[in-house]
Amino acid sequence: MAKARVKKSAASRGAGTTKRPRLEPSSFVINPIYKDTKFAENVRSDLNEKLPFPHWQLSNFLEVDPSVIERVEKELIEYPAWHRKENDLYSLLQTPDLQTLDAAKYPAITGFRQFLYNEMREWLANVSGIELLPQVDSTGSCYATTDCLLPHSDQVENRRFAFVYYFTEEPWEESYGGQTNIYNTNEDDEPTTLFTSLIPHRNSLLLFEVSEKSWHSVAEVIGEENCPRLSINGWFHTNRPIQPHIRPPLVRPKITPQGEVDLSSFFSAQVLNENSEKSMGEVFKSSSELLIKDSFQKAFHDEILLAMGSGNWIERGPVNKRWMAEYNIDDVSDGCVAKFVQALRSETMMTFVKKVTGSEYEEILIEPHTTLRIYRLTHGCYTVLGDEDAEQYMKDGLSADFWVRDFQLCFFVRSNLHEAFLQFYFGKSNWNEDAGGEVVYIKKDVEEPILRCPPTVGAMAIVRRDKDVFPFLKYVNHYAKPDPIYVIALSVYGLISSKDNDVQESTNAESSGEKAQMQSLA
Q1: 3-class secondary-structure state, position 290
Q2: Per the omega criterion (within 30 degrees of 0), is the bond before 318 cis?
Q3: What is this structure's pTM?
Q4: Do strands 399-405 and 418-426 pair parallel, antiparallel, or not at all (unpaired)?
Q5: Could you tell me if 231 and 334 lie in one domain?
Q6: Which regions of the chain are under pLDDT 50?
Q7: What pLDDT is recorded for position 331?
Q8: What per-residue confidence (pLDDT) applies to 289?
Q9: What is the rounded CA–CA span in Å between residue 30 and residue 119?
Q10: How many helices (H) and strands (E) does the chain have?
Q11: β-strand 382-383 against 469-473: which pairing, if any?
Q12: Which residue ranges does the record annotate as region Disordered (predicted)?
């Protein structure tokens, strides 16, 4: 779909000739204002002093006839092998490295690639005073509507300078999104507040030095469908060694379940009666996943929805890990939210978890304990997985995951020394399926997600998950409705599968890398 938008953009300008004259690197001429001595002095000064890190946006970077730029753009648009790239950090279309393209088929792109490798690399070395390696990485990138790139630093291997050259339409309005956001940092070199947003103007070059401070992002594109954010981007390299910064994972305090409660005050009779629990257990045993609709008492749902709307919400970061508003649980001592939190942390709830999943507590290795958080799904919220977070999931062991969203209970289980992760969703209306906001589960060394759990009104979802399966919250885009969805997320640790063969079946199913389709129990 996004690729079609790119082609529509070219057609709207009437681009297209059958002849493909070769563009030599000399066809691309750097604007003389960026070659004088004063500019070089400013760059070298910025490398030592510019905050929050050295970065430059150079307008009218190439002094060439517009047709030269259009020929490169046309070949990019017509290139047939754009790949959709999507994970917790980004969503966009991207080409392979430009050096792999057939020079005879794509002479304009080849000429631009040679310009990067020769003239531009020499120019950058001269103005910066830094010796650059022959290696130059370059790819085409296209961000269409809802695409974005979340905060990251680019600090990989021997990258020294990152660059982005834009082929965007003019005028590119601020309302289209797609800006490159530059972030301030704290004393731990974590991104904090927004420093500036740079609009991706046509024939401009964004250039910055890569470091532990070079936090940046690409804002969600929300412009017209025939107006994508098209660029060629990449990195110049040096032999400078990387100083990796080991960042701690996000760890929440764990609480031991206590007390008995009456769950019928919260959950519907369909969820709690003995026949339903047996049916849920049978479905879960055979498929390791389950979806139960109409999970809550309506009066309770309406009451907690009202309480959430007037609750104390706190924005949580850092933005390289997450951005969302969380409910201050410590500030709640009475009312329906406090009672539900108490119920979720009760021994009664743990008994329910064991019945549905066929799990028991591991009494020797670890005692059962829980973590809990409440957040809301609104435009712009997300979580990002770091290597340190994946390691923490491995340490925590396997899990059962529960959500409640929009009058629904969702439940996802990690097999074999489990962590049960429950999320409870409340809201006024159905969620737009194109808005993101789903919990996505990825497995170590498997390219495609093994499961996507979108917000589904009035249901309980139960899915088995291994310890090498990691969840993240997919970025919520501008298609989200104004009314938020409130999510209560509960993790239960210290469970083991009651049958070893169930564990093996689950592991084999997930290792296939196929996306799970939930079994529905109405």
Answers
A1: strand
A2: yes
A3: 0.87
A4: parallel
A5: no
A6: 1-5, 7-18, 364-365, 413-417, 500-519
A7: 79
A8: 72
A9: 9
A10: 12, 26
A11: unpaired
A12: 1-23
